[in-house]
Amino acid sequence: MCKLKRLSSIFLLICLSVLLLQAGCGYQLAAREPSVLTRHSNSTTDPADESTLPSMKIKGISNPTLYISLEHQLRGAFRDAIANRKIARWQDSGLADYELQINIIKYSMEGWGYSESGDSVMYRAYATMEAIVYSGETNREVWRSGQISLSRTYDTDNEMDAAYALSLELVERVVDRMRSVF
Fold first, then answer.
1. Are 97 and 87 in contact (CB under 8 A)?
2. Is this prediction's pTM over 0.70?
């Protein structure tokens, strides 16, 4: 019994040591990490106080595809992802500190896996996108995501569900890059 208590105490000390080391190594919540916008901002931003975050809006969406609903989906997805991660305060109109240009470079949807009646029951979706952030004051490019491509297969008989799922995943990848300041 004494050995068990001693082993438990040692294990507890090791766990506490690991936690203390992690806290001392700069681990923090993602919302407190710097973003590409804070690197170019003159003011200090505190994610806990949303009024100190820079403002952002959509500059435009270049969509050469026949999927017109993509524009609406991307607007909403970028707004939610950027606001939820406290990268910027979102605004729909007026002057903003930053403007986001979204360029859909390629988008394709292919039905495969057919039912007995000939309807698609699976879709293979492929997309390439790029996002560019411009200064709202000078219209100079501040940040560019580079081209991000993604290909997925969706087990659905609804083409728009597959398109929406792929769009959401692409937006998450772009916003993840906004947190990479190195």
1. no
2. yes
